[in-house]
Specification:
Blueprint lengths: L7 E8 L6 E8 L10 E2 L6 E10 L5 E12 L5 E13 L5 E2 L5 E3 L9 E10 L5 E11 L5 E4 L9 E3 L4 E9 L8 E7 L13 E4 L6 E10 L4 E10 L10 E6 L6 E6 L6 E13 L9 E8 L4 H7 L1 E6 L11 H7 L15 H6 L23 H6 L7 H9 L9 H7 L11 E6 L5 E6 L7 E7 L7 E2 L6 E7 L2
Antiparallel strand pairs: 1-2, 2-3, 4-5, 5-6, 7-9, 8-9, 9-13, 10-11, 10-12, 10-14, 14-15, 16-17, 17-20, 18-19, 18-21, 21-22, 23-24, 25-26, 25-27
Length: 486
């Protein structure tokens, strides 16, 4: 991405730590020095995958990113499934934006031992494109009684840092582990001089509660049990270090994460650890609800007491509504998936409803009995054959009417001309039978036109005008030839 005065940045979607999600990243280039800064990432979202990232510099030098954010999950077989896709946007300021995020505070070791020194790592970032000057990282710990103590590294207070656009620096702090981990709160800050540029002051502090649960809804999905009943489910996993209490509510809301609630489920206790989860779900009866579209978005929202975090983590579920505009038995959402017309009970006009073609006759509701011949005549007549005589107007109704009409000879219907091999536009064309006595005295019967094996010809005869027709024999004096399809 190029901007004015030499501004330049690379943008891409980068995989997150879970190997499934991804988030947009931009790496700016300093036009003054020509140096590339560190990657500047837009907020990552678990269970969402960023695609088609693009960017543009505005007149003030800020970099605007836009991308598709698709809900992703894995099914029971471990296969990736993609759900609702939304368009997201974020702006990276042209000036410096020092920040510290809650996700940037963690223990350096996997386990902590009470009474022993532990290392805590905090990362200070510059989320802007300009250089952040004089940034001083600080970290405090507050116990359950509210007493707060500042932590330092092995060399004491941290020195001020100059962070180029997109840069991130990890700082290690030392702390003597307390066994009351659930009651502790760590507070990190990125302090800047009063004269230094800072595009957003609200992200200069972050709080981390290592003993608290960290609940995320995943694998949100819908199962259509009947035409009106939907089973909505979501698995809630705990990525924190503390257990989640029993009774945490999972809400299912229409339209938006803070939209009307259609149902809720209470969680059981969820132990800490990515492998621990709880399946929440509701049964949604759509009977009596008026819908205006084939699909409805329902959000699975975990109520953790932080509305902003809950809204950000909410997972969308694409739900097929009970709307059936044409009343054929197929819901509009099913017709959307099939490609049929939700306003026509019989999309292809072949006399069989879309529902019956899908669930009864197992034919294609988009193709009229093959889509290339008539269906209202005793014998299907190919459209191509009618076209060769310029019959019909190109529409299904036109072909049907042309095939049932009387041919130019005034004797046959057009469809009979197709069977017999006649020209339906020639007034003198007839199916003719020829009879003579062969050399051995037996009758010989032939006919024109003779289409060979493309048709089935049956010859019958009788001895008198009033007799019964029977297979031909030497005594027959009267004959008839029937022509039919194979």
């Amino acid at each position: 991405v190029r901007g004015a005065n030499g501004a330049m940045a690379l943008v891409w979607a980068e995989p997150s730590d879970d190997g499934l999600s991804s988030h947009p990243v931009a790496m700016p280039r300093d036009p003054a020095t020509g140096a590339w800064g560190g990657p500047v990432a837009a907020a990552a979202e678990k269970g969402r995958q960023s695609r088609a990232v693009s960017g543009a510099f505005d007149a003030d030098g800020a970099l605007h990113l836009a991308w598709e954010s698709a809900a992703v999950s894995t099914n029971a077989a471990g296969e990736v499934e993609t759900g609702v896709t939304e368009i997201r946007e974020a702006a990276l300021p042209a000036t410096a934006d020092p920040a510290v995020l809650a996700a940037d505070i963690s223990f350096a070791e996997g386990d902590t031992v009470p009474g022993e020194e532990a290392r805590i790592v905090m990362t200070v970032r510059n989320l802007g494109l300009g250089t952040a000057a004089g940034v001083r990282p600080r970290l405090w710990v507050r116990d359950g009684a509210g007493a707060e103590t500042e932590l330092f590294g092995e060399t004491g207070a941290h020195v001020a840092l100059d962070l180029p656009g997109g840069a991130a620096v990890a700082v290690t702090n030392l702390w003597v582990c307390d066994d009351s981990l659930a009651e502790l709160t760590f507070r990190a800050a990125a302090e800047t001089p009063a004269s230094a540029a800072d595009a957003e002051l609200s992200n200069n502090q972050a709080v981390w509660k290592p003993g608290a649960p960290d609940l995320w809804p995943e694998n949100a999905r819908c199962v259509a049990e009947t035409a009106e009943i939907r089973l909505l489910t979501a698995t809630v996993r705990n990525y924190g270090l503390g257990p989640a209490r029993e009774g945490t509510v999972v809400s299912f809301r229409r339209g938006e994460p803070d939209g009307p609630e259609i149902g809720a489920d209470d969680l059981g206790a969820v132990l800490a650890g990515e492998g621990n989860g709880y399946d929440a779900g509701i049964s949604w009866n759509m009977a009596g609800i008026s819908f205006t579209s084939a699909w409805e978005t329902v959000w699975a929202v975990v109520d953790t007491g932080d509305p902003l975090a809950d809204s950000t983590r909410a997972q969308p579920i694409r739900v097929m509504t009970a709307l059936d505009t044409d009343g054929d038995g197929l819901l509009d959402a099913e017709e959307d998936m099939l490609g049929t017309d939700p306003t026509k009970a019989d999309t292809d006009g072949d006399g069989v409803t879309d529902y019956d073609e899908v669930y009864a006759t197992f034919t294609d509701p988009l193709v009229k009995n093959g889509g290339d011949h008539t269906v209202t005549t005793p014998v299907p007549v190919p459209y191509a054959w009618l076209d060769s005589y310029m019959l019909g107007d190109g529409s299904e109704a036109g072909y049907e009417a042309a095939a049932r009409a009387t041919a130019a000879n005034g004797v046959n219907a057009v469809w009979q001309c197709y069977v017999a091999g006649l020209n339906p536009t020639n007034w003198s064309d007839r199916f003719e039978t020829h009879i003579w006595i062969g050399a051995d005295g037996s009758p010989v019967v032939t006919w024109t036109p003779d289409l060979g094996e493309a048709r089935v010809y049956t010859v019958k005869g009788k001895e008198t005008l009033g007799g019964d027709w029977s297979p031909t024999n030497a005594a027959s004096r009267f004959f008839r030839v029937k022509v039919g399809m194979p």
